[in-house]
UniProtKB/TrEMBL annotation:
The lineage of its organism: Bacteria, Bacillati, Actinomycetota, Actinomycetes, Micrococcales. Keywords: Membrane, Transmembrane, Transmembrane helix. This is DUF4012 domain-containing protein. The chain crosses the membrane at residues 16-36.
Length: 593
């Protein structure tokens, strides 16, 4: 080999031929180390998150059961696990790889989820674990308003944490996420929605209750007990009326009356009526106190109730509450049985049948019936305000009554009304379809009897709101008479009334469409009919159809609607709370579960 060749030949250690494979090897080793480190962190974060998320539900259950010690221990474990998940997913190396295609968005989603859950643990769940539902338990008939007020800061902080976490999840682009990551984010999102709804209710309660319970002076609440055996839009004939007075947390019954104490059948409505309400329900809604609940708009009912009360009594009304015997039976699940002045024992199993049916066979004088009902309501009220029973169970049953439209509240305080505006407690229909798409189906008795004790109602609605084009809504309201034809003639006269043949039931059904929709067709048992009313009410299309059920008969009112363009939230049916549950079947093809 020549000298020139020897001079130009470089040592191997300086050769490109060495450094290319060595360099690649080093890179591969480095990447391997990075991959190992990141994959290890991913597994750690995944394991801690999977263990942590169920603990949040456990804390909630323990708090509702009043076991604050167990809730505190579980919250501590939750905080520890979420901190480990957060630490595993928050390093520079992890964040530096979030730009990598496919893997990057999934790494980002896991990091955000870890941050969210840790935020919830530190700022919501751990602080909330110190709260106890027994702080709401009456002692000697009084709710501790100071303890209630002390909860406000903790609840507000927890709610802010949930809102903050939900906003972070909302920013994530879910499209590139792998199946397991996407489903995990979806579960977390659903948990946040559930937690947010719960905290919203608690937050509203701790903000409203001190003032509502007379922290700044006595408050008077007109309480309507709606009789489901004689259906009206929001429940039934408000035959029994009770005045409750709350003063510095202590609640007392200060006056009792019945519908017979008021002047009914007035030549003119008690107040000037809204034209749309009068066109749909007639002026009787303002001429008889028994008919003020025809409309599904409870604030309007409250205004009518206040006007009737003012004409008869001189006590101030600060708010109006609505309850029914079915809701009273729910409370008995929490308080246990109560003994009435008559010697009867009222339980959650016999309250509905006794108050809505058997009482009419026992007493023929309506005043005696009303007195019996008032005594029952007073006895249950006494059990609740004395702190009898389980507080968590009581709150659960009150929530159930609210969800079913059996408990409603209107306040004369504008600030309170604003807080409750979007809740079921307000007894109003949503003003648009953005959050919830509501179809209404309301039952109004036309028999002037107590025959609706024997009426069952079923609702079915199908919607194309999650498919292209203008949405359609098709549905039905099925009314079934459960009266035994052989026993119809033996029913007490006060139950059957004196207008129709014993056992027959005449009913006005009012169907409301979503906001902006049109009601295109109405049928009864498959045959097209012309509604007795068709127009607009409460910013929605509405139709009224009268049907007649002989004992054992079934009447199915069908309808089809076309919706307007716009945003539609989850589909929901709202209607009159009946004596028995009203099953609802919904079909929304294409909507996310």
């Amino acid at each position: 080999m020549g000298k020139r060749a020897q001079e130009t030949k470089r040592p191997l250690v300086r050769s490109f031929r060495l450094w290319v494979p060595v360099g690649l090897g080093v890179v591969l080793l480095a990447l391997g180390g990075i991959a190992f480190k990141v994959s290890s962190d991913v597994l750690e974060a995944k394991a801690q998150l999977e263990a942590a998320i169920p603990l949040a539900s456990t804390v909630q259950k323990q708090l509702m059961a009043g076991d604050t010690k167990a809730a505190s221990r579980t919250a501590g474990e939750l905080e520890q696990r979420t901190a480990q998940a957060h630490a595993a997913s928050s390093g520079r190396l992890w964040r530096g790889l979030e730009w990598v295609p496919v893997a990057g968005p999934n790494l980002e989603a896991v990091r955000v989820a870890s941050t969210v859950v840790n935020d919830l643990a530190v700022n919501a769940i751990v602080p909330a674990s110190s709260l106890s539902v027994d702080q709401l338990k009456p002692v000697d008939g009084r709710i501790n308003l100071e303890a209630l007020a002390s909860m406000a800061g903790t609840v507000e902080e927890a709610r802010a944490s949930v809102d903050r976490s939900a906003a972070q999840l909302k920013k994530l682009d879910r499209k590139p996420l792998l199946g397991p990551v996407d489903s995990g984010i979806a579960r977390l999102d659903a948990s946040l929605a559930k937690m947010g709804g719960l905290l919203e209710g608690v937050d509203n309660a701790v903000r409203l209750l001190p003032q509502a319970l007379g922290a700044n002076g006595p408050k008077n609440y007109l309480t309507l007990f709606q009789n489901n055996a004689e259906s009206r839009g929001t429940g039934g004939n408000p035959a029994a009326v009770v005045m409750l007075t709350a003063d510095h947390g202590k609640i007392d019954i200060t006056q009792q009356s019945s519908s017979t104490d008021f002047v009914n059948g007035k030549p003119e409505p008690i107040i000037p009526l809204d034209p749309a309400t009068e066109a749909l329900y007639g002026d009787k809604i303002g001429r008889y106190i028994q008919d003020i609940t025809l409309t599904p708009d409870f604030p309007y009912t409250a205004e009518l109730a206040k006007a009737f009360w003012a004409k008869t009594f001189d006590s101030r009304v600060d708010g109006v509450v609505s309850f029914d015997p079915v809701a009273l039976s729910y409370l008995l699940k929490a308080t246990g049985p109560v003994t009435l002045p008559t010697g009867d024992t009222l339980t959650d199993a016999n309250a509905v049948s006794l108050l809505l049916n058997e009482v009419y066979g026992r007493y023929t004088d309506p005043r005696d019936q009303d007195a019996f009902f008032a005594a029952a309501a007073g006895s249950i009220f006494g059990a609740v305000t004395s702190g009898t029973g389980d507080t968590a169970a009581l709150l659960t049953q009150l929530s159930r009554a609210t969800d079913e439209g059996r408990l409603m509240y209107w306040s004369g305080d504008e600030a309170q009304r604003e807080i409750l505006a979007d809740s079921r407690l307000s007894g109003t229909l949503p003003v648009d379809n953005a959050k919830i798409t509501v179809v209404g189906a309301y039952i109004n008795d036309n028999t002037s009897s107590k025959m609706d004790y024997y009426l069952d109602v079923v609702n079915d609605v199908a919607s194309t709101q999650c498919q292209p084009g203008a949405p359609t809504f098709t549905g039905s309201v099925t009314l079934t008479s459960t009266v035994d034809p052989a026993k119809a003639s033996s029913l007490p006269g006060y139950i059957t009334g004196n207008i129709f043949r014993p056992g027959d039931i005449s009913t006005d059904v009012v169907v409301y469409g979503p906001v902006g929709a049109t009601i295109d067709r109405v049928t009864v048992n498959g045959k097209k009919v012309k509604p007795s009313y068709s127009g607009q009410h409460l910013g929605r299309p509405a139709v009224k159809v009268r049907v007649f059920n002989v004992p054992g008969a079934v009447r199915k009112i069908g309808y089809s609607m076309t919706g307007a363009a716009g945003t539609y939230g989850p589909l929901e049916v709202r209607g009159t709370p009946m004596v028995r549950p009203t099953p609802v079947t919904l079909s929304t093809p294409g909507c996310k579960k």
